Amino acid sequence: MATSAAAIPEHVPADRVVDFDVFAPPGAEVDYFAAWDSLRGGPAVVWTTANGGHWIAADGATTRALWGDSERLSSEPLAVVPGLAEVMRFIPLQQDPPEHKPFRTAVMKGFANHHVAAMEPLVREVARELIAELKPAGSCEFMTRFAEVLPIHIFLTLIGVPTQDRPKLRPLGQQLTRPDGSMTVEQLRDAADEYLAPYVRERLADPGEDLFSRILAVPIEGRAWTMDEAMRMCRNLLFGGLDTVVSMFGQFALHLARHPEDQARLRAEPDLIPAATDELMRRYPMVSVTRGCTEDIAIDGVTMREGDLVYLNASMHNLDESCFERARQVDFDRKLPPIRHTTLGSGAHRCVGAGLARMEGIVFLEEWLAAIPTFRIAPGSRPRYRAGNVGALTELMLDWR
Ligand code: HEM
User: Fold this and answer.
1) 349 lines ligand 1 (CB under 6 A)
2) Whose CA is nearest to atom 3 of ligand 1?
3) What is the pLDDT of residue 339?
4) What is the DSSP string of 300-338?
5) What is the pLDDT of residue 2?
6) Which residue has the least CA distance to atom 42 on ligand 1?
7) What 8-state DSSP symbol labels residue 17?
8) 312 lines ligand 1 (CB under 6 A)
């Protein structure tokens, strides 16, 4: 993402100005979290000149409070990149109350706990197959061989399409998780739409048992979904449910590769895995969101003006020592405080796929640790990160020889 330095608006005090490119924070390719840490310790909100100029919340309490404030902050902008919001038009992610509510309610029904529970055996089966394929080699590049593959299988199954479609969706998934510049955002959206449209049309006309059908069967204030709304929602699920889960698997694997003692503990005490999943999600959050001020907001001695963009990064909350004791430490026995972590967001837009994501995390840990002996980062290799709205590892060589 190119950085375009912008003129500093008059309402931004000089001592709040930084040059922080959220798509390429300093050193993020080797340590994403350390890069974000460079903003800590100063004011609670800063203004970056990068990417056209926008605010960034720079401490935990402010990040958390602004994330949940849909009264004064709109979700419509989607990102600090101009044009992206208009291209994607996600439902429900980019909607504000009150429009947001009926759409979100419909999507939530599709993700009800019993549906997620019903998916578990399949997630387990696919994870087992993939792991069985990888195991004999004694090493693998985890991101391309596992992390990027499993979520696509799961998504296809959720929406009830033949898994033979995998090869069609795989390149799209890769562009999403590892954009190589060969496709514009419009082309990516069009490719996703081209793939999804026939299924969406069919599900609207003749609903089945799959996720899209379940959601589209819920009326929106007494009327049916339009094709345009249905496409925007399905696009949201495709884009929201692949990249994020890929990123989560990468973080889990990297932590365990660096901490053989944690591998040993979870192998010895598999009942700890659900709690370990929550703690690993808290410790390694990689999602950021952009909001737009719908009114002037006085905060931390400055005024964010109506129309200004604010960037919120979940790690600024989860790794803030004043919000979580020993915030950097992974502690499987941690009792999460009543204010939970921000990995899955907070407030009106909190992740609707949270239950599914958690189940995928648990199944991954159970199956990987049961099948793969003690693993580590392959000697001579170095994990690489990509920053962005969903940060992710791009390279993680694991070795269990
Ligand atoms: C570890 C994996 C995941 C993470 C870290 C994650 C993170 C998030 C976050 C932070 C938000 C809030 C966005 C905001 O406040 O603007 C969100 C919303 C959302 N997520 Fe997830 N997500 C994950 C998995 C999934 C999955 C598997 C799906 C579906 C297949 C999904 C679908 C959505 C949707 C539709 C929304 C919008 C909800 C709304 O606007 O009301 N997510 N997610």
Assistant:
1) yes
2) 244
3) 64
4) TTEEEPTT-EEEEEHHHHHT-TTTSTTTTS--TT----S
5) 47
6) 353
7) E
8) no
Closest among 332, 343, 316, 357 to 41, alpha carbons compared: 316
| 293 touches ligand 1 (CB under 6 Å) | no
For the record, the structure tokens of 337 come out as 């405080």
Q: How much distance in Å is there from the Cα of 58 to the middle of ligand 1?
A: 22
Q: Which residues pair with 17 in a beta bridge?
A: 47
Write out pLDDT tens, residues 312-335: 999 999 999 999 999 999 999 988
- CA-proximal residue: ligand 1, atom 6 (nearest): 344
Q: What does the radius of gyration of the chain's CA atoms come to, in whole angstroms?
A: 21
Q: How confident is the model at residue 161 (pLDDT cuts 50, 70, 90)?
A: confident
Residue in the structure block whose two tokens are 């019993």: 114
Q: How far is the CA of 296 from the centre of ligand 1 (A)?
A: 28
Mean pLDDT of the chain: 93
Which residue out of 156, 351, 360, 393 has the highest number of ligand 1 atoms within 8 Å of its CB and is therefore the one to mutate?
351
194: Cβ contacts below 8 Å, ≥ 6 apart: none
Where in the chain are the domains?
A: 14-399
Determine the atom of ligand 1 nearest the C-alpha atom of 151. 27
- Both tokens of 356, joined, read 């599914």
Q: Over pLDDT 90: what percentage of the chain?
A: 81
Whole-prediction pTM: 0.96
Fold of 14-399: Cytochrome p450 (1.10.630)
